[in-house]
Amino acid sequence: MILPTFLKKLSAIEMILMTMFILFIIFPVEIPSSLANIIDSPLGMVVLFGITLSLFIFFNPVLGVLYILVAYELLRRSSTNITPSSALIDYTPTQETKNRELKKMNPSQSLTLEEEMVEMRAPIGKSDQGVYIDTIFKPVANKTDGASLYVN
After folding, report:
1. Looking at the domain assignment, is residue 89 inside a domain?
2. How many domains does the chain fold into?
3. Which of 74, 75, 78, 94 could form a disulfide with 36 if both were Cys (CB 3.0 to 4.6 A apart)?
């Protein structure tokens, strides 16, 4: 069998790691929930980034690129493993449920003292209707033909 030149240059450890990475990508390996919680945390992401950098520095760069795919797949699988599959279904409450919850959050408020005093003392809506009075006064308005709308 003819191997590509970059595969001939790989050491035994690099070949084993590459095989494990390829198998992890191909097969749907389930991540344990305890490990998934650690990987999905900020510390887990920093560790994955550190492993990626060390693979690029100390091993073959092809192994580093392959590990980037493995890290992505690991993050994807660990993020879906945290919650049970039944919780992944979106629950949409009915409008009645929403209305009950909103009513609990916003109880009806009684009038404040200020509102009571304004309601009691305000003349708006309680005065007599306006009476038109005929007077002999007539306002005077000058002709404004050709006048400018703006004053400088």
Report:
1. no
2. 1
3. 78
71 found inside a domain: yes
In a domain, 24, yes or no: no
SS (H, E, C) the chain: CCCCHHHHCCCHHHHHHHHHHHHHHHCCCCCCHHHHHHHCCHHHHHHHHHHHHHHHHHCCHHHHHHHHHHHHHHHHHHHHHCCCHHHHCCCCCCHHHHHHHHHHHCCCCCCCHHHHHHHHHCCCCCCCCCCCCCCCCCCCCCCCCCCCCCCC
Give the structural domain span for 61: 32-83
Would 12 be classed as within a structural domain?
no
pTM: 0.49
